[in-house]
Design goal:
mainly beta; 6 domains; twelve-stranded mixed beta sheet; 46% strand; globular
Length: 706
């Protein structure tokens, strides 16, 4: 009725529209046909339509076999919404069997997982997609100068159907997700495109996809090189993926293709390169921080070196081995090398600062700290002993992560950051009992106090705790058993979860790499959630250098422990005796990020696994994972303050294990799908000069999803 009134009020405009139609311009507004484009196409006998600015819908069914559909918008102000008709996901079957061309508009949908079902062909030019589209008919689609802005389950574009896709001059804020296709195989052509934080995702079993990348493409703000492409593909699970770059195959069968040795340059004056190494040191000359930058730098090119802030030290400056002079007092320093050199970040130990220690217990004593009433100050790295002296029955000490760190009343440790301890005790009362529920990792997740004379129905269990790679089957004591024990006089009952292993087996291939080495790889089956320890073999005429996984160095110690969450190749790298090996230094990396969904509780779990490798000249004071529940880099500036506490917005999870090699898992539970968490592994070590050393891994993110 509103439209009718508008036409009656402005008869002159209505007449002009009729005249325009008569001349074949076919321009419509959002008021024509109520903005429903299927009806408009039928009304204009399937002629090309020009859409004025406004909102339109694709709803209904065209009903014209092999119709040609051409829709041209007026820019961002033209918004076309795909209405979910229940055909698949949130998609439409309106253009079934049609040949569709859409340009110069914003394309949206009722919800994510949208698209066009059953089309013969799709072509888009100058379009912006602000929802996650993944249905593209039987043949796929061509995109020219389009933008994909959503980030749905970490992806901006998907393929639930369609087998051939071409992208030219397109922009993606998140990866392209290659899942399935009609034939189980497909081809993607990419040229002149820009990618943000991700490139390609493709889950295991998604079929045989061929990706052809050509021309100048941008990834993470830089030109997409072979090295960057191979690195980005390292996390792809689909072994059926083949990727070419400018006609050369760089990835197939789940691994990078070995690049052939380059032909000798005929240029009698080859480019000059400089080797720039980086290190850190305190007054003792020992490493105290993990610095980054340098490498093989061509003459005339710049390089950037970065030194982190670390608790207990102030940054003095960058010093060059070329002249032993200070080059910069900025922690991030960019320069143009003129010779081979080592850039050393020098630190000066601060004096007079202390780390905080908080104790929660009804009665205790402290050695090695000063203070009172639960709040103490400690010299960083010093040995502390906390002893429970109360009259209650003592069970254990737990840390700030609620993990059990000691079952002895007297707990001794070296303090590497702000530390909180709580004594778990229970008061002996003839008519009362304490029931403690633990998870699989020794954390106390719930306690309850009961009075004798109760029934089994009075016992309340907490929510089943998650354990990666295992299915919860029940608790170590039934309600009847707990009630009977309490009524029989038990004063403290500890209940632990029971699990069965999931049917998830990963294959770890352990091999040796080195000039002239041709060892036979070993394959080992590892249950999900379990660990694998490996030791480098002694090989005559060779020296062990490092361990690598997917092109990343994860350790320089001769033994290593990993916890694989997918089929993995672990490589022991060797060099010929007398050649330089990788420097023996502490290394920690987040080697796995895993998403899980519990159908029983309806909750999601994001699991980060840190792998550490520490040489013998260090001891581990503290290790674990730093994390943030918001888009905040856990390594922004210095995560630790001078009192050993964490800056606002960063949290940590740690345990009492101080083994030089091992893994640490952090499980973050959430009821919110698509919530992203950010994490980084960390270690606080003591070097042979009795100084604390702070080592961090690169940060990674994980998003809650099924």
């Amino acid at each position: 009725m509103k439209k009718l009134v508008s036409l009656l009020a402005f008869p002159l405009i209505f007449l002009c529209l009729l005249q325009a139609s008569a001349f074949g311009e076919n321009r419509i507004t959002e008021y024509d046909y109520n903005g429903e484009l299927v009806n408009a196409l039928i009304g204009y006998d399937f002629q090309p339509l020009d859409l004025d600015e406004g909102s339109y819908t694709i709803n209904g069914y065209l009903g014209q076999p092999e119709a040609n559909v051409t829709l041209t918008g007026s820019g961002d102000g033209t918004l076309v919404c795909v209405v979910n008709d229940g055909s698949a996901g949130s998609s439409t079957q309106a253009f079934e069997n049609a040949y569709v061309s859409m340009s110069n508009m914003t394309v949206t949908a009722d919800d994510n997982n949208s698209g066009f079902v059953g089309t013969n062909s799709l072509s888009f030019a100058g379009c912006v997609f602000n929802k996650y589209f993944c249905y593209w008919g039987s043949n796929g689609a061509i995109f020219s100068n389009c933008s994909f802005t959503p980030s749905y389950s970490e992806n901006s574009f998907g393929t639930a159907d369609g087998s051939n896709f071409t992208f030219a001059g397109c922009t993606f804020n998140a990866p392209v997700n290659l899942t399935t296709s009609n034939s189980g195989a497909g081809t993607v052509n990419i040229s002149g495109c820009t990618f943000g934080s991700g490139l390609i995702n493709s889950p295991a079993g998604a079929g045989n996809w061929i990706i052809n990348i050509s021309g100048s493409n941008t990834f993470n703000g830089a030109t997409l090189t072979r090295e960057a492409l191979v690195s980005a593909l390292g996390s792809v699970k689909n072994s059926g993926l083949t990727v070419t770059l400018d006609g050369e195959t760089v990835w197939t069968n789940g691994a990078a293709v070995q690049q052939p040795d380059p032909e000798p340059s005929p240029d009698p004056s080859p480019s000059v390169y400089y080797k720039i190494e980086v290190s850190s040191s305190s007054a003792s000359g020992m490493t105290v921080a993990h610095v980054s930058g340098g490498g093989r730098i061509a003459s005339g090119e710049s390089t950037t070196v970065t030194a982190p802030s670390i608790a207990g030290y102030s940054f003095s400056g960058w010093y060059s081995s070329a002249d032993e002079n200070c080059q910069s007092t900025e922690q991030t320093y960019t320069f143009y090398p003129t010779c081979d050199c080592t850039m050393t970040a020098k630190y000066v130990a601060e004096t007079g600062y202390t780390f905080g220690l908080a104790i929660d217990a009804d009665s205790y004593s402290v050695e090695g700290a000063t203070g009172a009433d639960g709040a103490y100050s400690c010299i960083p790295g010093s040995s502390i002993t906390v002893s429970y002296t109360g009259s209650n029955t003592f069970k254990y000490w737990v840390n700030g992560s609620d993990k059990v760190v000691s079952t002895d009343k007297a707990y001794s440790f070296n303090i590497g950051s702000y530390t909180s301890l709580k004594a778990k005790t229970y008061e002996q009362q003839s008519s009362k009992a304490t029931v403690a529920f633990l998870n699989a990792y020794g954390q106390v997740i719930s306690t309850a106090e009961y009075t004798t004379g109760l029934a089994a129905s009075d016992i309340t269990y907490p929510e089943a705790p998650f354990k990666l790679g295992y299915k919860f089957t029940g608790w170590s004591a039934t309600a009847d058993e707990i009630a009977s024990a309490i009524n029989a006089g038990s004063e403290y009952i500890e209940v632990k979860p029971q699990y069965t292993a999931e049917e998830n087996i990963f294959i770890v291939t352990v091999n040796c790499s080195g000039d002239g080495l041709n060892g036979e790889p070993k394959t080992i089956a590892v249950q999900k959630g379990k660990y694998l320890s490996a030791a480098a073999e002694t090989i005559e005429c060779y020296s062990f250098s490092c361990w690598m996984v997917e092109g990343v160095i994860i350790g320089t110690t001769e033994s290593i422990t990993i916890s694989p969450m997918h089929d993995t190749t672990l490589t022991a790298v060797y060099v010929k005796t007398g050649e330089a090996t990788e420097a023996k230094q502490p290394i920690i990396n987040l080697t796995e990020v895993v998403n899980s969904y519990n159908t029983d509780t309806g909750k999601y779990t994001v699991t980060f696994i840190a792998t550490r490798s520490v040489p013998d000249e260090y001891s581990v004071v503290e290790q674990g994972i730093l994390y943030s529940p918001s888009e905040f880099n856990p390594l922004h500036a210095s995560p630790f303050k001078t009192d050993g506490g964490l800056v606002e917005g960063i949290y940590k999870s740690s345990d009492a294990k101080t083994d030089l090699t091992g893994t640490f898992a952090l499980n973050i539970n959430t009821a919110t799908e698509n919530k992203t968490f950010y994490a980084a592994g960390y270690m606080i070590l003591r070097n042979s000069s009795n100084e604390l050393v702070y080592i961090y891994s690169p940060a990674k993110s994980g998003t809650a999803s099924k």
